[in-house]
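Below is a filled-in request sheet from our internal design queue. Each sheet records the structural input a requester submitted and the sequence that came back. We keep these sheets so that new team members can see what a complete request looks like end to end.

REQUESTER: design group, bay 2
PRIORITY: normal
MODE: inverse folding
CHAIN LENGTH: 295
BACKBONE (tokenized):
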């Protein structure tokens, strides 16, 4: 069954203008388009949204603008986690002010807290808000993994309701799903892992590729839910080259190139991220062509 935020959650890019200023109008257009094309919810100011280079004020403006655009049609999940607990609390308040349906809180990055520090961090956030919290476990970006016992401890909190898992650890996810309390949900944090995670009992995906193939990802998940795993696997195999191309270099560089190619440009990424090279664009273009998204 789909999770409380649905089965397809899009980790939305942050649109910028040519001068790299925030483009709120385009953000509203994109969010509305996403919820009309396969997405149940959108994450604003997550990794795909270039959160490290979006200011606190810009995030608050994004939360409000996207919330206004999708109220009544999709759910708003605000990325409020940073390497600072105090800043995370302030951004969480901004999410509340914007009417968010939930928050995504990433593992504090760079400062590498021990597991007891992670527990203290997430519990401080949980104490400060009534919003549902999705914990974001992505050690490839944060240098710190939320270990199994820590996740189980956090899952005991009433408003820590899910994990977005980007570890690719199928054995660990199988164990977590078996041991977590009722109501605690697992979302795949990687498009390539979604098929396997759903077969193990995850409820959905926080997706990058859903900017381009949201309906197909939704169909794959629905097929798994109804027991037609072979048909779902065919969709997974068809989409895998696109999943891979969107991570040929740091996300969201390839995604922003792909969106430009299909006519939904959201501008270039902000430094220190840079536009895709010609070779990277060629690989993205071929994947789009193979997926039937470009003639």
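RETURNED SEQUENCE:
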């Amino acid at each position: 069954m789909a999770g409380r935020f649905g089965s397809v959650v899009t980790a939305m890019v942050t649109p910028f203008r040519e001068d790299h200023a925030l483009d709120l109008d385009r953000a509203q257009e994109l969010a509305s388009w996403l919820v009309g094309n396969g997405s149940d919810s959108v994450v604003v100011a997550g990794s795909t949204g270039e959160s490290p280079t979006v200011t606190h004020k810009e995030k608050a403006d994004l939360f409000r603008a996207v919330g206004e655009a999708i109220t009544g049609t999709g759910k708003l999940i605000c990325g409020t986690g940073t390497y600072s607990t105090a800043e995370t609390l302030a951004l969480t308040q901004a999410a509340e002010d914007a009417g968010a349906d939930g928050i995504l809180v990433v593992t504090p990055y760079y400062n590498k807290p021990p597991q007891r520090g992670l527990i203290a961090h997430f519990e401080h956030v949980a104490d400060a808000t009534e919003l549902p919290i999705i914990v974001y476990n992505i050690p490839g970006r944060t240098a710190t993994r939320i270990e199994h016992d820590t996740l189980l401890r956090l899952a005991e909190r009433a408003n820590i309701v899910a994990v977005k898992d980007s570890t690719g650890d199928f054995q660990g996810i199988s164990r977590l799903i078996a041991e977590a309390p009722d109501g605690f949900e697992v979302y795949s944090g990687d498009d390539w892992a979604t098929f396997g995670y759903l077969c193990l009992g995850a409820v959905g995906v926080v997706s990058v590729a859903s900017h381009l193939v949201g309906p197909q990802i939704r169909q794959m998940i629905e097929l798994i839910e109804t027991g037609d795993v072979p048909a779902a696997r065919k969709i997974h195999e068809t989409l895998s080259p696109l999943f891979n191309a969107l991570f040929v270099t740091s996300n969201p560089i390839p995604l922003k190139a792909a969106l430009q190619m299909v006519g939904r440009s959201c501008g270039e990424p902000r430094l220190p991220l840079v536009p895709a090279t010609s070779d990277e664009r060629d690989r993205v273009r071929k994947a789009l062509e193979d997926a039937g998204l470009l003639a």
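SHEET NOTES:
- The chain has a mean pLDDT of 97.
- The CA atoms of residues 85 and 124 lie 8 Å apart.
FILED BY: M.R.
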